[in-house]
Amino acid sequence: MKYEVKEIAYNERLFKKLIKQALLKAPQQKHSIEDIVLATGLSTRWVAYTLSLLLRRYPCRFETNENNDLLYIFDFDAGENRLQRWFTQWLKTSPNTKGGWLRKTVAHIAGITDQLKDRWLTEKLILNYIRNNQGQIVIAELIQLTGWSIRQAETEAVQLLANYEGEVEITTQGVIIYKFAQFAKPSNESVDISESLKIWERPLAEKEWKGEDLEKKIKALNQWNFRIAATAPLVFGGLFYLLSGSVPTQVLLLSAGLPLSLSTLFYSIPAVRKLRLSLENEKIRRKNVERYVLKAIFHRIHQQIRPERQIKVLIDDVKPLKTYLYWWNSRLVDQSMFDVLMMLTCTYDKEAIFREKALALDAELNVDTSGEICYEFERLHLEITEVAHNRLPSSNSFDNLLI
């Protein structure tokens, strides 16, 4: 008897091509694993394995349909090409290895040194949160930790899943829970650690000017420049007069102008650095306000929020329960005083910032019976509720997750 259905040897390049074609032909480019199996004729095992490889290369996020099936949504246009992947991997290599000085130099010139550091730190913070919450996390909690938009949080969650061999669980309410069983190591401090990791408990410190010694040296050097600018025309003019009987105007201008030009240059360098520092601190202040508004949103996420009437109440009502000190927040800050000073000195439109955050978090915009605009964050509230019920009783309580 001759069998028509045969086991096909795995061909990574061919299978990736077939799956990409199937995904691109789908309505809105959404497909479940079962849909891909039907569209390609590949086995479920090969489809699942090839998808795990594609997750490492292309941005992807998950959604669920009415049957609570997991749908893959890839952004193939945003994927890195081979040169970009090689370059990124090369920059991530330890600087202590051979050629490390060259990597550090290239990263500094390209302006991505801080970006790489921030990404590594963010990833470490997320893994610590997962570890202290029984190896589970949802998109709403990722937003609490990072301040990302929903779309970015969904994409980064799938990347975490691919990098750390996680898996997903879909609840009866259609909520996707990302699970990493190998990291589940809760402790007696899990609640405190989880709270301290949230982005509003980690305000950014403004950068300080550390050029006092440089300014002293510049002042001392410029004193000599001014003296030279005053005496040089006399010295050079006298020499020219003795040698040729006349003093060219160019000599006087050059002998006096060169020291003054150097003084201007010496003064301009720290002045430009101070201006740049001031602009950076202005960005930091706005980011801290954004974090505090995000804290206010999650503080009231279980109810309708009316920013026009409640924004001041939202901010005033959010009070820290405790100050935590861990390696990711090594500087002990009086959070209550920090919040008060920040909001008193804040010149930003807090309502506008709230609306920006609401848009990024897919809030539902409604109008109540009195004609007042209100926002609801049902999805985030549902996710926090579901993951709280899904964890063991010894895990964080629902109230702790909301604050």
Instruction: Please tell me what the overall shape is.
Output: elongated
Write out the CATH superfamily name of the domain at 1-79. Answer: Winged helix-like DNA-binding domain superfamily/Winged helix DNA-binding domain
Mean pLDDT: 76
Would you report the number of β strands? 8
Which CATH class of the domain at 1-79? Mainly Alpha
| SS summary, helix count | 16
The biggest beta sheet is recorded as: 3 strands, antiparallel
Transmembrane segments: 224-243, 249-269
Keywords: Membrane, Transmembrane, Transmembrane helix
Would you give an account of this structure?
The protein starts with 11 loop residues before the first helix and ends with a helix. The longest helix has 51 residues, at 249-299. With 403 residues, it is mainly alpha-helical. Among the domains are: 1-79, Orthogonal Bundle (Arc Repressor Mutant, subunit A); 212-281, no CATH class. It is 60% helix and 7% strand. Helix 1 (12-25) packs across helix 3, helix 10 packs antiparallel against helix 11 and helix 11 packs across helix 12. The chain has a three-stranded antiparallel beta sheet with strand order 1-3-2. The chain has a three-stranded antiparallel beta sheet with strand order 4-6-5. The chain has 16 helices and eight strands. The radius of gyration is 30 Å and the shape is elongated.
